Amino acid sequence: MESLASAIVELILAVGAMALLMVGVFSGSSAFKTVSLLSIGVLVIAILGAATLPTSTVVTYGGLFVVDGFAAFNKILILLGSALALVMSIDYLRKENLARFEFAILVLLATLGMTMMVSANNLIALYLGIELQSLALYVLAAINRDSSKATEAGLKYFVLGALSSGMLLYGSSLIYGFSGSLEFSDIMAAAAASDDTSFGLLFGLVFLLAGLAFKISAAPFHMWTPDVYEGAPTPVTAFFAGAPKVAAMALLIRVLFDAIPGLMNDWQQIIIFLAMASMAVGAFFALVQTNIKRLMAFSSISHVGFALIGLSSADQAGVGSVLIYLSIYLVMNIGTFALILSMRRKEGMAEDISDLAGLGRTRPAMALYLAVFLFSLAGIPPLAGFFGKFFVLMQAINAGHITLAIFGVIMSVIGAFYYLRIFKIMYFDAPVAEFDVGPSRALNIVSSATAVLVVAYALWPTLLNNAAMAAAGTLF
Amino acid sequence: MILHALTFYLFAAIAVAAGFMVISSRNPVHSVLYLILAFFTSAALFVLMAAEFLAMIMLIVYIGAVAVLFLFVVMMLDINFVELRKGFLQYLPIGALIGVILAIELIFIVGTWTFGGDTTLVAATAQPMVIEGGNTEAIGRVLYTDYVYAFQAAGIILLVAMIGAIVLTHRSRPGVKKQNITEQVHRSPTEAVELRDIPPGQGI
Predict the structure, then answer these.
(1) Is residue A353 a contact partner of residue A290, using CB atoms and an 8 Å limit?
(2) Among B105, B130, B155, where does a domain finish?
(3) How high is the ipTM of this complex?
(4) pLDDT, tens digit, for every residue of B20-32?
């Protein structure tokens, strides 16, 4: 019973996905809307299920599966991200003739993979979760199979994803060989048992981290991100930029603090390098982008870099700051993509930054919302994005990584340039053709709700902060 | 013991010979058949090692599915294998080089194993457990108990693969002529047969 109750979220998602698959197969042409709406329902039920999860650590299924406050927090975040991405996708998919009910099923199954990643307590469970999530994401990237761009994105994602899985497995097998166990707690014990770190274990760790860095698209493992984000249909991109990032980051944190805290001095250097490289790549490459989806890809790379700064302190407050950063990032990102999905003219979607010219005059409300998100992404107070950056940078300073903190601030300033450039294009450039197709009600609700959250965070920051710190506390 | 060794060398020799024939036979269908022979003898080698579960999986998966799939592909695709084979010999030097390197590595491994003397490392690694009823039963005992989570997760991954393949390749084509038995049975003579009065010498 305990094992069933601890896996309640996974059970709801798996049973829901399979039941809806049946509904979709047998209900003919009307399947898309029914299945999509029911999938959102399943995700909402799963959120309620996640709220009942125990906050103390419970290990079940023969040590393969763990639930604690950290897992519950991240599961709620992931489910929320997936549900909002689905809400935003329905209207787009119908207009672009992509209305296939399998879309929602694949989102559900990918979400199942993500929740399994968050609860992994064993290298096998880790790999199975990652593969389940990735496989569903590869298909989603290529779901617009008649577009050569989308199929290219799917194929590229698949090939590079397989490469990263190979690195991950290679690292895992080395770790298994040198620690004698697949379970995180045993690996920790084996690493602590010997005084000098085993070289083989360290070697495996590097490969494992490289595989995980690919999944969070941290530089220098970010090559796939811009192409996949640009090629995939926009709601799929919105989904990619949110929940999977949270899941992979949570998994990385779980591995670092549950399996190899003993090797902290070694992995800290790797994390700091990944953070600096990601921030730099995200900031500099975004400067020259003209496509807004590509820009968001580089923006997400730089945000991953900032989130990694929080891990450099390697303590509870550090993990808590990462969770706060991820929550805020998820909300900002969904809001921004809701507005990108609203960039629609009669002849189709607009994706170029120049299409936004004069938006301040033609569509003042949309421009205002986008401005709020851009300022928040850039980290300008008093919006939520500022506090996210503030907390992680504080952690770096507290841990004595002053160079890292200064580097982060400089990259943040460079990053602010390209966000503000969009602001300038919206408000000070001559208007181009108006977006004459109004966004659907779902998009309006999502963008305004997320905008309110981004603004209101500064009023009640403790709500999120306390939850994140408590969640981080269960790891230590 | 001598019988055991003899059987091993018999199957090992067949496996190596079959492997050689896979790359050297002219007809690609023959190549696939030799591949099946190589798989089969490898399965026999697994049985000799008391790994009967692996042997059966080898038979079912590699011969039953993979090799048959190869055969289909070879027979259905119009690939000019003679063209592919052109310049085959020019790879011989590099192939031979890799073979020599592999042989040297094997000699090193066997050499340290035999003459290294330090067996503590080997002893420290987990020893295979001897289980009543063979390893099929042993796997069956833990598959649905200790590893039920991983097993079910693997099942869902296969489900995703299936959905993905259908989503990315299935097309519903209109105008395909399919037999509908109910429709055929329910045809009445009035709509199936039409009687025309044809005036003589004119035709329809």
Answers:
(1) yes
(2) B130
(3) 0.92
(4) 999 888 888 888 9
